[in-house]
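Quick one, tokens below. Sequence please?
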């Protein structure tokens, strides 16, 4: 939805398009806040943070993943798959390890069993899990890691 300019021509993005949908987003937030309260909304955020901490802990227990940082502060975990484990991956060219992350992310997207983005940290490519659904479970996290292992093994 766009507001019409006075001359009847739609405003363009460069002239400051305004959408009618923005107040609706605020209404949804207000209604959720009203229903759950501050403590309830806070608990939903904490649930996501707890799942991120679980993912980071599972990564720390494994030889074929590494996280950066090891303990996430919020619900985002950046991590890499290390083909063959830490020792084998240490022999890989950094650009090859970066390409492996990009390929693994694309395979996961094509597989449809999960979705991650990639990002650059310290000049290297990392997988990025942004956990934003409070219905995410530990089993979902375990499944993600197993799916990534399966897809990496198939390459």
């Amino acid at each position: 939805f766009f507001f019409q300019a006075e001359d009847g021509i739609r405003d363009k993005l460069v002239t400051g398009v305004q959408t009618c949908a923005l107040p609706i987003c605020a209404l949804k937030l207000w209604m959720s806040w009203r229903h759950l309260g501050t403590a309830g909304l806070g608990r939903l955020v904490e649930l996501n943070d707890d799942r991120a901490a679980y993912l980071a802990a599972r990564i720390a227990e494994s030889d074929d993943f590494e996280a950066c940082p090891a303990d996430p502060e919020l619900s985002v975990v950046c991590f890499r798959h290390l083909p063959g484990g830490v020792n084998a991956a240490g022999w890989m060219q950094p650009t090859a390890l970066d390409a492996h992350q990009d390929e693994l992310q694309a395979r996961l997207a094509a597989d449809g069993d999960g979705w991650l983005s990639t990002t650059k940290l310290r000049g290297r490519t990392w997988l990025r899990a942004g956990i934003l659904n409070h219905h995410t479970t530990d089993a979902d996290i375990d499944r993600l890691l197993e799916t990534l292992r399966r897809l990496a093994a198939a390459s």
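The CA atoms of residues 103 and 152 lie 9 Å apart. The first strand starts at residue 65 and ends at 67.
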